[in-house]
Amino acid sequence: MTWSTREIAELAETTVKTVRYYHEIGLLDEPDREPNGYKRYEVRHLTRLLRIKRLTGLGVPLAQVAAMGADPDRQASVFRTIDAELEATVERLQDIRRVLATLSEPGASADVPTGFSGVAEDLRDNDRALLTIYAQLFSDESMDAVRRTLEARPNVALDEEFRDLPEDADDITRQSLAEQLAPFIDHPVTLELKDSAPRQARVALGRALEALYNRAQIDVLRRAQVISTTSRG
Fold this sequence. Notes:
Helix content is 64%, strand content 2%. The protein is mainly α and 233 residues long. It has three domains: 5-68, Multidrug-efflux Transporter Regulator, Chain: A, Domain 2 (Orthogonal Bundle), CATH 1.10.1660.10; 70-104; 117-232, no CATH class. A two-stranded antiparallel sheet has the order 1-2. The chain is rod-shaped and about 100 Å long.
C-alpha cells in the first residue's frame, strides 16, 4: 500500500506544503517515484511523519528533531529542556492570571501596578506614571514599601499642597513646604533596583522625575531630603 503526497498529508492531518518542507530540510526521506514521476509514500514514511508531528506538538523544534535521532540520552536531554521551559511558561501564565484576577476586582485600575489600586484613586496622572516606572525598575519588596507609605497617607493636605505647587513658586514658599515635608521623610523608603534593571535605570528615573514634576516640586523634595538628613545627623 502506497500513498500520494496529498494522501499521506491527509492521513497525518498535515499539509502537502509541510511534507515537502520536511523533505527540503532532510527530516523526511524522499520516497520512490512511479514511472509517471509521482511520489509513492510507504508505511515507513507515514510513521516518520507521525513521529515528527508528535515531537513538534510536544514543543520540540525541528532542528532538535533532526539532531536527536534515535539516541535515548539525547532525546531525554531535549525533553528535560522543554519541560523546564514549559514550567517557566506555566509560572508566567499563573502570574498573569493572578494579575487579571486582581484587575477584575471592583475599583481596580490597570493604570497602576498590581496592588496599588487601593491607593490609586487619589493619585494624579504624574504619580500614576511614576509608579508604573517604579514597578519596572524596583524590586517587589521596594514596591511593597512604597505601597505601605501611600496607604499611611500621613498628611493629605500637605500632599495636595505639594501637588499644586506652581513651577514659579518663590523661595520662601519652597523652603516652607520643604520644612513641612522633612519630618515625613525622616525614615525614607529605600528603593532597591531589580537584578534585571538596566545600568541606566537611575538616570532614567531622574529624567522621569524631571518630566513628571515641575522644577519647584523637585527643588522642594531636594530641600526636604537635606533637612531630613541634617536633622538625623
